[in-house]
Predict the 3D structure of the following.
Amino acid sequence: MKKETTKSAKAIRTRNNVLIHILLAVLAFIWVFPVLWVIMTSFRAEKGSYVSTFFPKAFTLDNYIKLFTDTTILNFPKMFMNTLVIAIFSCLLSTFFVLSAAYCLSRMRFKMRKPYMNMAMILGLFPGFMSMVAVYFILKAVGLTEGSLIRLALILCYSGGAALGFQIAKGFFDTTPYAIDEAAMIDGCTRWQVFTKITLPLSKPIIIYTILTSFISPWVDFIFAKVICRANADQYTVAIGLWKMLEKEYIDNWYTCFAAGAVLISIPIAILFLKLQKYYVNGMTGAVKG
Amino acid sequence: MKQLSREAELAARRVDVGHVTCMEALRSGGPETKASAFVMGLGNILHKQVGKGLIFLAAEVAYIAFMVLSGFHNLAMLPSLGSVEQQEVWNEELQVFLYTKGDQSILILLYGVATILVTLMMFWIWRGTLKSAYVAELLDKRGSHINTLADDLRGLLNENLYRLLMTPPMFFILVLTILPLVFMICMAFTNYSKIGDHLVLFDWVGLDNFMTLFDGSSVLGGTFWSVLGWTLVWAFFATFTNYFFGMILAILINRKGTRAKGFWRFCFVISCAVPMFVSLLIMRTMLQPEGAVNVLLRNLGLIASDASLPFFTNATWARVTVIVINIWVGVPYTLLQLTGVLQNIPGDLYEAADVDGATKVQQFFKITLPYMFYVTTPYLIATFTGNVNNFNVIYLLSGGDPVTNLASTAGETDLLVTWLYKLTIDKQYYNIGAVVGILTFVILAIGSLLTYRNSKSYKEEGGF
């Protein structure tokens, strides 16, 4: 009798396992399909935005070659360089801002600490680009919306508010024991030395996380770049370029190139994301606990 | 012995610095401290802090110079926002029309707001100089050590490190976040709009714009209420579909019987790698009336050869479509975020439930859900807020379409934010756009405050 129940329980468990694996496979297919489709499209020889088969009839690298050589209408290499420059500088600035704000808020006690944190929370409730038009006017008043100064304007836009996003880094600093700082200060270290020689070397994961997230944001941002670049086509970033490729007059010729461009900017992000998964998870749990 | 007295002195100094207020300085400070209110830095200069005093003095001189050169003019123009129109004048010599420079209200408003911010900062510095002068006076009277400029600079790397590190970010936040926000809020009280052709010269109109939006019978007002309604519906569904779907998926992947956990997670996470705007644009082209999905359905014979499913042309279809696609976009992130939280649920709770004979479904509703709600309330609030302000998904996917009511400025899937974008960038109704932004903020602030205060995690901190 007893043996029979265990057997049936086992059978049920196996059945459930099979069902769940099938379900997961179906779901995984739904999620992976568009990604595969983009990759396939980027190697497709036929032009146009629609073909009736999933697998291209002929594979080619022309889309990638065209993307980098055909610069008459949409200058992708230039856009790529623009974005790269903007990304590097705004990444440096934002990382500095985020880490220093997070360190101060986590380790030091000063009068403006609470007000600053409340302010960051309140500012976060405003629609992000409500002030975008106003930012444009300000940059225009300072003369940063002409020619290559647009790049500087975009760098400032991406990194200017970075210090408001200190939460994850602060959560990380909060977890490193304060006793280490105290010991160093008793040995005669200044706060600055503690920050640069002890806290930062101990915080590699969060530094990498901050650098990478702030490096990615200019690559994927579309709205700010569009509002600030306006008609200055030579200052466009990759995101605007890709958007342009899907407009009615370009879509037939450029759709496959769009896919190629999408694949190119997805590769670094994919690598980063897979590497960063665990920090993403940890950041979340840390934030909830704290 | 000497070391001991030095320590006591240091302590006294710390206490002194910490407890001096600006009012004390004005009330009980010596004449030189009081005079510092007018000649900033005087107190410091007289009490052996020449360098510091000169810096304060320089700040005052710079501020006065700025105010005389442009500040007072900026402030004086603020109430009227300018009235001189640009005019054409016939120039006899050159035989052409020349334009005289008219007032530009937008610049007047911007400079006015900036001047007010500079003045507030100056007031803050002024208070600092008073305190600093008073401290110097007290220390000098007592004959204790007074920090030289070099001491102060060294302090910036040590106990005052936060001043050094927080000032640059704070400056940029002030210029690129707070100033634009204040500027935008000011616009809500003007008639800066294409309506009535007020794009160059505009005036203060008080609360008129708010009245227009609250008045449900006007076109803008009617649009506002319907957009607000859909925004809340969207935010609710977008938040909770993702939350539950992500949670169930995380449970399925992490349950004991599932093989190849890493592989499944990889499958879902890989879709995060494609930048959101790319995947959204692809979805959009696929779902057009002549797009890939419709053509595929026609070829398969599932719909008539001339028919197409109205993904973005029928209001209800469009709304369901954006919510469904948002699940596709958002679930991988939710999966990652909730995995860690789910693994934190104490395992013995489930073991006890197993012993008591509870089914998996019962365990989900009695253990997992209460725990998750308890721990993730702040996360849910943040996600809800994020979804109310979720510009990308709607703008890139449907662009707010379909527009069923041609008189209104918003489509059926427009959220408050995308409507705000259309109002400001496309229509140039800057004032109405600003009001919409302010109202979005008010709704979010009240909403998140109330839910947070009523949530269990706020009421009984550290329960469970």
Q: What stands out?
A: The longest helix of chain B spans residues 105-142. Strands of chain B lie at 87-91, 96-100.
